[in-house]
Specification:
alpha+beta; 4-stranded antiparallel β-sheet; 4-stranded mixed β-sheet
């Protein structure tokens, strides 16, 4: 089903909307909260792929707690937030992007209200001095772990799940819980890398590694094409009250 048919159906059932194109999606701007809910329910029943952009006032208030030990238990932080009457949603320890090494920084999502702003006045957790700063985010494009597309998160995604390994209709988390055999394309050891330099490329191991490099390159190209050759979807921005 093409985009024109979907927008025509939304117009017939839910009334007129303002529609714009951006980031590979058609942005639908409802005129009221009731129309937003009506469009959302209609698209769910029709099986359309879409995701929702919540309004600013409904997004969580995020801060980072610094100067804590890397082995700090998040349950201790949650206990502190409960005792201090801070309306938190979740507590997550940040990790280094490449190595996934735990960092001494803890991200706290709070319900956006006046009480949440008072967390900047906090000075200690478990008798350890802390620094509270606003969360600035990472300088990378946000990727959804449900459909593996970009510019939105899994919490507000209603797009059909897609696995990056098998391209099937399953979330990548469901696949990570299972144990799979070794991949067909293996990474050569450091001693094997010596065969890729100089005249050693003509050796048996060098020729074998060259085939592996070529296969890996083909896999990367196919994956890239799979990511960019997606059909247009629909996303909805919640109206501002």
């Amino acid at each position: 089903m093409n985009t024109k048919t979907i927008l025509d159906d939304i117009h017939k059932v839910c009334g007129p909307t303002e529609n714009k194109f951006g980031n590979g999606f058609i942005k639908v701007f409802p005129s009221s909260h009731d129309q937003h809910q009506e469009i959302q329910n209609f698209c769910k029943t029709q099986g359309y792929d879409f995701y929702i952009i919540p309004p600013i006032e409904k997004r969580p208030f995020k801060v980072v707690l610094k100067d804590l030990p890397p082995n700090m238990n998040t349950e201790d932080i949650k206990t502190f937030l409960i005792n201090s009457d801070y309306p938190f949603i979740k507590v997550t320890q940040l990790t280094q992007l490449k190595t996934r090494r735990p960092l001494p920084f803890f991200l706290v999502d709070l319900v956006k209200n006046e009480r949440a702003q008072k967390i900047y006045d906090s000075r200690q957790i478990n008798r350890i001095s802390i620094t509270v700063e606003p969360y600035r985010g990472r300088n990378i494009a946000q990727q959804c772990f449900r459909c593996n597309l970009f510019h939105h998160n899994a919490a507000n995604c209603q797009i059909t799940p897609r696995c990056l390994k098998c391209n099937g209709s399953r979330q990548i988390y469901a696949r990570l819980k299972k144990k799979f055999p070794s991949p067909l394309v293996s990474i050569p050891a450091k001693q094997d890398m010596l065969y890729l330099t100089g005249d050693a490329k003509n050796s048996p191991k060098g020729q074998q590694l060259s085939k592996i490099e070529q296969t890996t390159s083909n896999l990367i190209i196919e994956t890239s094409l799979m990511l960019i050759s997606t059909e247009l979807g629909i996303m909805f921005r919640s109206p501002t009250p």
